[in-house]
Amino acid sequence: MEYQAVITEAWKLFKSGKKYIFFTLGITVTCTIILFLVGVLGGFGVGSLFGSTTVTSNTAMINTGKPAPYTAYDTIAPSLSPAVIILVIVILCVSLIGGVFMWIFNTGVYKAFVEKYKSNKDMSFSEVFKQGLIYFLKIFVAQLLLSLPFIAVFGLLAIVATALGIGSYSGTSDSAAVLGGLSFIVICCGSLLLIPLLILIAMMNTTLQNAIFIDGMGIIESLSYSLKFVKKHFWKILLLMIIGILIAFVVSIPLFCVTFSLGFLEGILSMGESAARGATVSLAGSLVNYLSQSIQTIYTLILSLYFTCYWIVAYVKLKNLGKEEVKTAEPVVTQA
Predict the structure, then answer these.
(1) Residue 229 confidence (pLDDT)
(2) What pLDDT is stored for residue 25 in this prediction?
(3) What does each C-alpha distance from 130 to 69, 127, 134, 331 come to in angstroms?
């Protein structure tokens, strides 16, 4: 297995599909701006859900007979007007629609990179979205089924730990200590059990998606195949995951430096705030914070797209290593 070839070929695929990167960035920025504007406009109405608090000064007589001022907080009951409720529903619906739309489009981008690698085929924006609609539900159901073991184990451990924790408060001091200790042991042992389960699910997830996108398998077939594939190439996939973590760590160093610097600048601005220029400084601090968050989002998005290419190339190379035929865009030269 040539791990260096996986990294370099993934980079070539990533660069050749830069139009999909711009598509994804455009969709992400557009959805983020829409959600931000809806949130800002809705913030004025949502605030009334929590009511407002007024401060009034009263006097009370103490033993000396002298009046002593004190402050009482009178809370006005929140007003649940139909307009506010409708506004909240609209915000939730827009957020949900935006999230699903981005998920569908990212699914189409994955398929577009697959086609680019297999046959050097380019897709338009509408074709990418159409592919996302075709594969979205299949990928969603497959990943949900893949996550069921983790959900079941986590739920069982949570129920047991919660029951022991409740029992420790309702019993005697001795039984409380025993039950509290058992609850702690359940949490620790459960964490040790969940970590390898999460690693296995992450390995199977990469294989699952590629089995559907590249080989056109169904939901159940891809689940079964991904388990067999991971069992066959377990150590190679684990090493690929470790290499991917190292790559993410190295390329995130510049991001850390930039965000740390911006955070430091935001802290300086907040410390320099005064009554005279408080609004200006506050606005500048908000802009710096927004810039930092935007850089992190774009950086993370680009990195995730590279790892999409990384796992496509790794899957194909592992299948070729297993002497299974997979067509790629690069010509195969044979000797007569």
Answers:
(1) 94
(2) 86
(3) 69, 5, 6, 29
**Chain mean pLDDT for the chain:** 76
Tell me: pLDDT of 37 over 80.
no
**Cα 104 to chain centroid, rounded:** 15
Highest mean pLDDT among 35-49, 132-146, 169-183: 132-146
The DSSP line for 220-289 is HHHHHHHHHHHHHSHHHHHHHHHHHHHHHHHHHHHHHHHHHHHHHHHHHHHHT--TTTHHHHHHHHHHHH
Q: What is the CA radius of gyration of the chain?
A: 28
Rounded alpha-carbon distances, angstroms, from residue 49 to 87, 89, 242, 314: 11, 13, 48, 51
**259-to-104, 262, 265, 299, 301 alpha-carbon distances in Å:** 30, 5, 10, 11, 16
- DSSP letter at 47 equals G
**Tell me: the pLDDT tens digits for 215-225?**
989 999 999 99
Q: Does position 330 have pLDDT exceeding 60, yes or no?
A: no
- pTM score of the predicted model: 0.74
Beta bridge partners of 137: none
User: What's the DSSP call for residue 329?
Assistant: S
CA 305 to mean position of chain CA atoms = 14
Task: Please report, as a single letter, which amino acid is at residue 297.
Answer: T
Residue 269 structure tokens: 């601005």
Q: What is the mean pLDDT of residues 67-72?
A: 47
Which residue in this structure is represented by tokens 């069982």? 156
Query: What percentage of the chain reaches a pLDDT higher than 70?
Result: 68
Run of H or E residues at 74: strand 67-76
User: Which of these, 256, 259, 275, lies nearest to 267 by C-alpha position?
Assistant: 259
Q: Please list the alpha-helical segments (H only) found in 47-124.
A: 82-119
CB neighbour class for 64 (10 Å; exposed up to 12, middle 13-18, buried from 19): exposed
